Amino acid sequence: xxxxxxxAIFTSVTPPPLPELSNLAAGGTLPAILRQLSSLGGCTxxxxxxxxxxxxxxxxxxxxxxxxxxxxNSGDLPAGQLLVRCNNRRTTRCPxxxxxxxxxxxxxxxxxxxxxxxxxxxxxTHPRVFATFTAPGFGPxxxxxxxxxxxxxxxxxxxxxxxxxxxxxxxxxxxxxAVLWNAHAGxxxxxxxxxxRREVGKRAGLLQRELRDHARVSFAKVAEYQKRGAVHFHAVxxxxxxxxxxxxxxxxxxxxxxxxxxxxxxxxxxxxxxTIDGRxxxxxxxxxxxxxxxxxxxxxxxxxxxERAVAAYIAKYATKGAETATGALDRPLKFVAELxxxxxxxxxxxxxxxxxxxxxxxxxxxxxxxxxxxxLGFRGHFSTKSRRYSTTxxxxxxxxAEWRRAQAAPNEPAPETTYVLAHWVFARxxxxxxxxxLAASLEPAPGTEGEPTHG
Length: 455
Ligand SMILES: [Zn+2]
Ligand SMILES: [Zn+2]
Description:
Layout: H1 8-11, H2 18-27, H3 30-38, E1 47-58, E2 65-73, E3 82-84, H4 95-114, E4 128-133, H5 175-203, H6 208-211, E5 216-225, E6 231-240, H7 255-268, E7 271-276, E8 279-283, E9 289-293, H8 307-317, H9 322-326, H10 338-341, H11 346-358, E10 383-385, H12 393-408, E11 418-429, H13 433-442
One zinc ion is lined by residues 142, 151, 153, 155, 157, 163.
């Protein structure tokens, strides 16, 4: 992948903070500070830490701690503090870090489809599907008909019309149910996965507790916001043998059986919710369920859903929150009064206000609707996977740290022969004006920061 560099030094419209820059130049720390900033890989909101880290040699025979190998004191660093990437997964918050997150998710999904990163390659022959689960309707919304008919409002909406997905009549739209559905989407998914195992077992003539001796059902999923503000789930679902991805699935396990079982489980699953003002809420998936078999890339004729397309799709949505689809917020709200000042869609405002109002109720305390109002009530994880699906994001991060260490000091001893004593305390986040200006001057395009490229 070519490394593109922005020429911000020459094109930046913000004037350089000259006094701070000339101080750095006079102190001779400019090259060092540029080096420290470049280790952030373009992260613009790094976490700043005060503290130290000392690495000691360990005698492998006696286990005794020996001489100091490395010592790092934050005060000695050019920026005066240790700068660590923010690792925010949201594109709107940190483009550079979210790009790393997107690539990690891509690898994780791909490993579960094609093998790799500790998952054997024969998982590619296991039955697997890509399924999309939607929310039910909460009232009619503006939409585009594929058959040329206009929307119910009488107009033909453009593809990027802001009105799409928003209620035809906001006063009759069921905002309360919409927010509560999001708040129960996580439990609904968990119950679905139990039902799914039961349905798979039933089709194989097995009791639920017998299934695990024959097969395992694993998945990786991501949550995406529809334009109407409802969460839906995209999931890769796979049948393995009794030992997970390592073991071949039984002969009865086919993509058709899996598809059928998913349909049955999704239709049956239901979660009982709270009773509000005499109305008992219950939550189910919407009738729109899309299940497609994933084919291997090698047999793709351009029509089939490929492993690559699925991985790219899931990875993309792993870096987005409610802000992208619905024009809501990418961070928590502190006071409801802030809502009036924000430049967000009217529909998003109503969803957030509803979550805030419901969040005041004692009986809904466990849903933490105020803390999650900006997520329109959804407080689940954006991307989750069952333990046996493939590698973990943590493992990928460790591999990357290992790679960086090897790049920095190829002759360093393996970490298990050293003893590390470290103490760090959070100082603050962000960069100073001069640091930000310098960082922009060397910022590579997101995702090209000198790491091996995958996918
Ligand atoms: Zn960042
Ligand atoms: Zn319309």
